[in-house]
Amino acid sequence: MKIAVLGAGAMGCLYGAALAEKGNDVLFIDVSEKTIETINENGVTLETDEGKRTVQARACKAHETKEDFDLIILFTKTIHSRVALESIRHLLNKTVTVLTIQNGLGNKELVEEFVEEKQIILGMTGFPADLHGSANVSSHGKSYTGIIDACGAVSDNAVLVADEITKAGLNCKVTNEVFEYIWEKVCFNAAVNALCAATELTVGQVGEFGGRELAYKIAQEGIKAANLKGVDAKFEKVKEMLNHAFTAHYDHKPSMLQDVLCKRQTEIDSINGQIVKIAKELGSPAPINETVNALVLMKQNSYKKHD
User: What is the pTM assigned to this prediction?
Assistant: First the structure.
């Protein structure tokens, strides 16, 4: 397949490099000149349980390509999605498929402003990814990717995309449970990413140093909101994911923690903030999520002021 990966951060590099390694024609589209130069000159350094290797690929800024793609995978942070999609509007023809595997809620609605619903595939991933400098990514441990057509159907195109992702070693299945998966992943991220960002601890340290029960309570508030919204997300699945992460991904620094450490804007509002918003709309406040959301925003405000 001819694939454009929009956003060459940790997840973008993981999926893009893995797909390129299996013979797909992958182009990374990013705004960072350093990242683009690194990929074009040295490729992407990819480290997984199978070992460390370099995968050759291409990269450019959005305005520098006018190619036609079979698939565009959206991996930008949700706070940058609109600007990123505007930058590739000239690539969004009537035949391209757009796959969003992003954190947070509301991604489908935003992508629908640029392409028709039938062109959109929704996805979630349980794979961790750590970026060690430009185009240098590591991911350890087993997990899965789930995708589904945005309309809830199972198209031949979605099956084809899933097959390519699975061949790339990122175990992918097409399932209408993705809507539940997305909410469960949001609840997982609300617990892990936000607590790591607020405390500046790794995933395992949060679990070890007293954050386990707090993480459960954050996730439970999100699951309650999902259930009230008619989504059959399950707390026990999120709890299992959390317990696995606390052990298997002990040293992992989630993207939100990396953002805090680098004094960048985080995705807190599209994760915990969205849980709070939806919960309130449904008459079920989420006070713990609201508190953690405020704590991370305080951090953001402090380094903005300091800068």
Answer: 0.83
